[in-house]
Amino acid sequence: MTTSVLSVASEVFPLIKTGGLADVAGALPLALAEHGIAVRTLMPGYPDVLKCVGRGELVCRFADLFGGKAQILAVRHGALDLLILDAPHLFDRPGGPYVTPAGYDHPDNWARFAALSKAGAAVAQGAIAGFSPDIVHAHDWQAALAPVYLAVSNKPRPRTIVTIHNLAFQGNFPSSIFADLGLPATTWSIEGVEYYGNVGYLKGGLHAADVVTTVSPTYAEEILTPEGGMGLDGLLRGIDDRLVGIVNGIDVGVWDPQTDPAIAKTYSARSPKARSHNKRALEGEFGLRRDDGPIFAVVSRLTWQKGLDLVADACDDLVERGIRLVVVGSGDQMIEGQFLAAHARHPDRVGVRIGYDEALSHRVQAGADAILIPSRFEPCGLTQLYGLRYGCVPVVTKVGGLADTVVDANYAATSAGVATGIIFAPPSVPALIEAVERARRLYEDGKPWRDMQICAMNTDVSWRASARLYADLYRDLLKE
Fold first, then answer.
1. What stretch of H or E contains 423?
2. Is 55 exposed, middle or buried, given 0-12, 13-18 or 19+ CB atoms closer than 10 A?
3. Which residues contact 129 (CB under 8 A, 6 or more apart)?
4. Which residues are ADP-alpha-D-glucose-binding (predicted)?
């Protein structure tokens, strides 16, 4: 018997992406299909999304959804079964999904994503003829009110799950918006959406959901602590019997060095020497001096959370040690400026591209020798999984999903041939430099590095195992 799931997400790859949430929302439904789980995904109708998917089938109308008319369009995009919330007054505007062209939050984000959640709750309770999902799976704060709207409804409701992709982003808004959410007064409480005098979207969703998941087992433990809980650790400890950590996978069809059209030359774990063509191409693309030394890369949001200030501070020291560095990303202007200044000082040793380019990120993973991910906290991380897949050895901090997915090249792991990367702690400049030195020594030794690359490339980073865990979770939830 097929289990029907309504996934509610604010971004879905390949239609719109700002981070790992989009990759998960785009790849997990495809992996679940193999386990008899049919997923329809509700997402906002941003201009680029509507342009890409076309007209679609009108399946639902709203006379007034937070200040304007709205409709839901059913479309297929590749293998994805999508429901597009077409609400021009909320989503037809320039800028990103969450920010204006100037980089500021849209002032009505509270209404935009409350609308997404309310539409999700309506669909879950029969707003679309012939569709009655067994489970609603809400992703992050942008969809977290869906379980709240369902919990206060008098109608029968499906079971609900909220997935925390990053607890740092909680969707907290002034109390003045509460009256416009259409929620009963009883939800303005410690067990509802009230959060230190504000409205907490994620906080409300965590209380209302039947199950809460997060994107790695270690992160599920970390968020129960005051250090990792971002102010919600007390709530999470209170629901830890329904908190589950399931590590993310990646779409190994999109990320496949044997078939990737974006890279200079395809290769595999059986033909790793062909990888050198991509390294030469990367040197040329970033204007790096050509030599036989290692290239370390960064492909990331350039933020404090990701620890990229540490890499920027260590840049001169790394160059003095013979390291070449490639940086792709955007974020904190100060960190961006530090990397640009390092490029100015070392134009043939440090290459920098401010901004994100999906095809370029593939070329970097295929051409660099190692990927630096010195995060201060990391719920799961996908960049290290791409690195494993492409033989770009991850150098990571011992936090969250990084600790769950990378095997440190210590003596025992290297001797046993199971090492896949370098893990270090704490997130500091001295520890980072020492980790890079460890990696450089292994690289210069030759065979241990090649063995580690091949072991990394043979690691299963697909959704196969995790999709099975989600499928089991859904079915167990329906049995309760």
1. strand 422-424
2. exposed
3. 59
4. 17
First to last CA, the chain: 17
> What H or E segment, with its residue span, contains residue 74?
strand 70-77
Q: Is 447 annotated as a binding residue?
A: no
Under the banding of pLDDT at 50, 70 and 90, the label for residue 1 is: confident
Q: Which residue do the tokens 């690195």 mark?
A: 387
> What are the Cα distances from residue 437, in Å, to 173, 299, 371, 434?
45, 20, 14, 5
Residue type (1 letter), 309: D
DSSP β-ladder status, 194-195 and 198-200 = antiparallel
Q: What is the pLDDT of residues 107-128, one digit of tens each?
A: 999 999 999 999 999 999 999 9
Can you read off the two tokens belonging to residue 76?
């297929």
**Cβ pair 281, 311 in contact under 8 A:** no
Contact call for residues 25 and 97 (beta carbons, < 8 A): no
Residue-range domains of the chain with CATH: 3-249+463-479 (3.40.50.2000), 272-457 (3.40.50.2000)
Cα(200)–Cα(202) distance, integer angstroms = 6
Task: List the one residue out of 106, 229, 121 whose CA is nearest residue 170.
Answer: 229
Triad 29, 122, 68: Cα angle to 5°: 110
User: How far is residue 296's CA from residue 241's CA, in Å, rounded to a whole number?
Assistant: 41
Which token pair is 196?
């230190």
pLDDT at residue 54 in the model: 86
Q: Look-up: residue for tokens 């043939």?
A: 348
Burial 6-31 (b: 16+ CB within 10 A, else e): bbbbbbbbebbbebbbbbbbbbbbbb
Residue 42: φ, ψ to 5°? -95, 125
* Backbone phi, psi, residue 434, to 5°: -65, -40
Per-residue b or e along 334-348, where b marks 16 or more CB atoms closer than 10 Å to that residue's CB: ebbebbeebbeebee
CB 382 within 8 A of CB 370: no
CA distances from 330 to 19, 105, 298, 337, 358 (A): 12, 16, 11, 10, 13
Amino acid at residue number 228? G
Question: What value does the mean pLDDT take over residues 389-414?
Answer: 97
Count of beta carbons in the 10 Å neighbourhood of residue 217: 17
